[in-house]
Amino acid sequence: MTMNTQKTLVLDACKQGIERWKIAFNTQNAAGCAAEYEADCVMHARPFGVFTGREEIQAFWQKIMSDGFCDVDYQDTKWEAKGDNGFILTSSWTMNKAFGVVHREHWLLQADGTAKLHSDDFEVQGER
């Protein structure tokens, strides 16, 4: 397999991962959101704090959903290769009640061929 073919496969897996995460969020499925993170992932959710591991991350997303947040959409998404098996996503985002930016989502290819979030750093910048 050529290096370009490998990069394309990794990028496709990462793009499928973020789509699964958005679908889970938009269907109010906090467990589905958490499933897109590696087991020991660290998520920096500014200004809320740092959440480590799927259990804390799932609880965070459940609270956000319970508070009525939904309909997330990413804009101006950029992907940058990180090593041989990952990509960094940066983006702006909107949802029904807030907007902000993704500073750095690091997606890594897993042994099963899917990609999961290795780390996540995003910020809520305001209300809508």
From TrEMBL:
Pfam families: SnoaL_2 (PF12680). InterPro entries: NTF2-like_dom_sf, SnoaL-like. It comes from the Bacteria. Residues 19-95 form the SnoaL-like domain. Gene3D superfamilies: 3.10.450.50. This is Isochorismatase family protein. The lineage of its organism: Bacteria, Pseudomonadati, Pseudomonadota, Gammaproteobacteria, Vibrionales.
